[in-house]
Amino acid sequence: MELLGGLIEGFGGAVTGLALTLIAFLFVLTLVVFVHEYGHFIVARWCGVKVRVFSIGFGNELFGWYDRKGTRWRFSAIPLGGYVKFEGDANAASSPDFDAVRAMSEEERKGSIFHKSVGQRAAIVAAGPAANFIMAITVFAAMAYFNGRQILLPRIETVQAASAAERAGFQPGDLVVSIDGRIIDSFTDMQRIVSINAGEKLKVTVDRGGTPVELTAVPDLREVPSPLGAQKVGVLGVQASNGAAAWRTEHYSLPGALRAGVSETWQVVAQTYHYVGRLIAGKESTEQLSGPIRIAEVSGQVARLGGLVGLLNLAAVLSVSIGLINLVPIPMLDGGHLLFYGIEAVRGRPLSERAQEFGFRLGLMLVAVLMLLVTWNDVMHIGARFGLAR
User: Fold this and answer.
1) Does residue 37 have an active-site annotation?
2) Cα 121 to chain centroid, rounded
3) How far apart are CA 262 and CA 173, in angstroms?
4) CB-based contact 150:249 (threshold 8 Å)
5) What is the pLDDT of residue 66?
6) Which of 86, 162, 202, 232 could form a disulfide with 113 if both were Cys (CB 3.0 to 4.6 A apart)?
């Protein structure tokens, strides 16, 4: 009976954990998607474009309603994204329905996105990523304003033997002042720079008993555990002092909190671009890319450890990532539409229908390949956790 009771209790805990993970994932993803699509939606309304559908998710509609301007607001069966469909769109990717556009009446043309100026169309498209960045700044600023910021001073307590820090000449008691000319305010600032610069020379200035000392460190590449699985990052091999004197709380005024929000958002952008640059240069692996399975997993972990505040922080980081991904100049994504509009502005006329159709097909293929890659990474990550893959 005790064994049966233990099995029942374990199963109940797993079900509860799965339910929490699912709820947390849907909360984070729905919030980020809604903000992105609402950016498109509200600017389209300002420009006089008729919005046919505002959908959270893809596939069959679960439930929905019409607003007073005729937009169908809907929740769909596959909660992995969303879209707004404008007058004249052929599909959720906003590729044009050329036959329908040509057959439009004068009244329909007034509400069609394809009959607006290049500037208006570009503003509508750019509004989605812009809304994601605004959301991230707002969340980070609110956290700074209401909670302040707990700062661990970048003072070294221990240096691991045979580590990059030992080779560079770090000593216990060193206070890191700057790295490559950038002022270091916290141990977290130092970790951010070191983690994305494995194998790169870093010029580090430390305060050693009141005397500035210049060191050159080359972070080692190591696998470290993280909520998204083992991640290969740069490490020095040091531990921070962790006593009460090593911590300070920084409080912000409203303008200061906004600056902190902008700064934190920029940190995420800069780290992402740095990773992409190293990926293109062959210095990073695509194994670090995560898809919906791992995002769901980390959502559940964050919900258990950090509650609503942690989920909002995760949503802000994910919001920046969604904004950046959508700015990639691939047809089907917002960046692809902006690329087409830029070409149209230079040429004085849009690309041919055939060129646009080819572009959207190519974009669909590239997006599909990316989704397969990140899903494969997720599956391998789950397999590794259960000893089924390496």
Assistant:
1) yes
2) 25
3) 32
4) yes
5) 94
6) 86
Query: What local confidence, expressed as pLDDT, does residue 92 receive?
Result: 66
Q: 273: closest CA among 332, 217, 321, 315?
A: 321
Q: Phi first, then psi: give them for residue 278, nearest 5 degrees.
A: -70, -30
In order along the chain (390 residues), what is the average pLDDT of each group of 10 residues?
43 60 89 95 94 92 93 91 83 69 78 88 95 96 90 91 93 93 90 89 93 93 64 86 83 93 92 77 69 77 82 92 91 89 90 83 83 75 58
Terminal-to-terminal C-alpha distance of the chain: 37
What would the two tokens of residue 214 be? 């210049």
Residue 367's pLDDT is 82
Q: Note the pLDDT of residue 374.
A: 75
Distance CA 271, CA 264 (A): 11
Altogether, the residues listed in the chain come to a count of: 390
**DSSP letters for 56-93:** EEEEEEEEEEE-TTS-EEEEEEEEEEEEEEEBTBSSTT
Q: Which of 266, 268, 302, 257 is nearest to 28 (CA)?
A: 302
Helical residues (DSSP H) of 185-333, grouped into ranges:
187-195, 254-280, 292-326
pLDDT of residue 382: 66
Q: Which strand (E) or helix (H) includes residue 214?
A: strand 211-217
Are 376 and 369 contacting, i.e. CB atoms less than 8 angstroms apart?
Answer: no
- Contacts of residue 367, Cβ cutoff 8 Å, sequence gap at least 6: 330, 332, 333
Please state the φ and ψ torsions of residue 201, each to the nearest 5 degrees. Answer: -75, 130
**363, two tokens:** 């974009």
Nearest to 112 by CA among 126, 127, 129, 124: 124
CA distances from 113 to 2, 46, 96, 344 (A): 66, 12, 9, 15
206 forms beta bridges with: 176, 213
**Are 156 and 241 spatial neighbours (Cβ–Cβ below 8 Å)?**
yes
Contact 333, 356 (CB under 8 A): no
Q: Which two tokens stand for residue 112?
A: 């069609």
